[in-house]
Specification:
The structure is a homodimer. The first copy, chain A, is about 45% helix and about 10% strand. With about 130 residues, chain A is α+β, with helices and mostly antiparallel strands. The interface between A and B is medium-sized, with 25 and 25 residues.
């Protein structure tokens, strides 16, 4: 019996019926963004994503918590409008919504990232 | 019978045995500051205090919540290191710890306040 080899499949398409909900830019609220950023694990995620050009899978950002807790943290960031998440195959790929945040709250994300860097340096957790 | 007139009493002394606990500057943590700022009522308090030169009593910053909820919000801000509170007579007087925050996280508070102003303007809640 002849089957197509796996390599013939289109590479990692975005699966339309598994689209994750994101707030449109105009619905992003400062309090929710600050809440999303107010957790050391979520700050770790945001710092890692900020250091990347492209998208990262959740497993590219290992956290010292269970998988379900990690998934929760990514979801809080997405629902607040801090990151976007898209399925590619079985992986969720993440990017910072830097441009959207910059448009709404100029300079805020940069200052938070600088503050996180400064604190990590100060506490020797760089 | 002769008593001292009330005006002879020292004005509003800080009552030493009612001192409220504050984190020393080096114990202030970014995640806790962001958490303290991640509530619309607490952002309202911080915006009002930022617009004042001196200290303000809690009742100078009326919030559309119960007194106990208001007290809670001020306490969260104090315990995170965002404001200092001192008793004068029966009032708690509040000031922003702008200098401490600026030393730890340069520019952060300014960006949060600018973001809060921009959002209030955008949503017509200026």
């Amino acid at each position: 019996m002849s089957t197509s080899p796996p390599s013939a499949a289109p590479p990692d398409p975005v699966t339309p019926d598994r689209t994750l909900e994101h707030p449109p830019t105009e619905d992003i609220r400062l309090a929710e963004v600050l809440h999303a950023l107010s957790d050391p694990m979520r700050l770790t995620v945001v710092r890692r994503l900020a250091g990347e050009r492209g998208e990262m899978s959740c497993s590219d950002v290992p956290l010292p918590v269970s998988k379900s807790t990690s998934t929760h943290h990514f979801r809080v960031l997405r629902e607040a409008g801090v990151i976007s998440q898209v399925y590619r195959g079985t992986s969720k790929m993440n990017t910072l919504r830097s441009a959207d945040l910059e448009r709404l709250f100029p300079g805020l994300l940069d200052r938070v990232l600088a503050a996180a860097d400064a604190q990590a340096e100060r506490l020797g957790q760089g």
